[in-house]
Amino acid sequence: MATLQHVFVHAYNTDKVRKSDLPKRFQDLLAPKWQGKLAIEGDDHEWLSSVIADMGETSGIQFWRELVATNGISVRSGHPLLTSLVASGEIPLALTVYQYSVEQAKKKGSPIDWFVIEPAVSITNGIAVPKKRRTRTPRSFSTTTSSAPKASASWRGSATYRHTARWSRR
Fold first, then answer.
1. How high does pLDDT run on average in the chain?
2. Which residues have CB under 8 Å from 81's CB, separation 6+?
């Protein structure tokens, strides 16, 4: 059972960026129109490593180096801060915010929305598999992530495990 699931999304200020201009793939961020308009949360190494792995390690690292060199990325500390900066328009597009925080800001009337360049990445914190079952249903836990074999081995050896899962909005 997951006690906490964070879904990373990309947030944009709807007054600064038109929905039709949103990038469809990460390579679209290399376009000159994104220069000085991108931000990322500084501690999201799980997200970055997952995206790099999906691109292929060599090409993924090359892409991020090129993006930083050509368009730059503002690195901020704290997801709430990053979401607030997008909502205020100071940052037009943030690559690593939590989906729930964007929805909260939208409900308050902020000009903010979210999208995902697939596959999306989520972080599960505090997975626990009960030692004794409380019902007659069989004990099982399944996941369709690329880290499932490693996760299964880790669950046998410890009470908690932190892993990255991927999902699609489709």
1. 80
2. none
Which among 47, 37, 39, 46 is positioned nearest to 17, based on CA atoms?
37
**Burial letters for 114-139: b for 16+ Cβ neighbours within 10 Å, e otherwise?**
bbbbebbbbbbeebeeeeeeeeeeee
Q: Quick check: is 58 in a domain?
A: yes
Q: Which long-range contacts (CB under 8 A, 24 or more apart) does 157-163 make?
A: 159/128, 160/126, 160/127, 160/128, 161/127, 162/123, 162/124, 162/125, 162/127, 163/124, 163/127
Domain harbouring 71, CATH code = 3.40.190.10
Closest CA to 128 of 161, 153, 157, 156: 161
**Structural domain contains residue 114:** yes
Note the pTM of the prediction, 2 decimals. Answer: 0.72
Domain that holds residue 49: 2-121
Report the distance separating Cα 162 and Cα 123, nearest Å.
Answer: 7
Task: Say which amino acid occupies 156.
Answer: R
The pLDDT tens digits of the residues spanning 30-75 come to 999 999 999 999 998 888 999 999 999 999 999 999 999 999 999 9
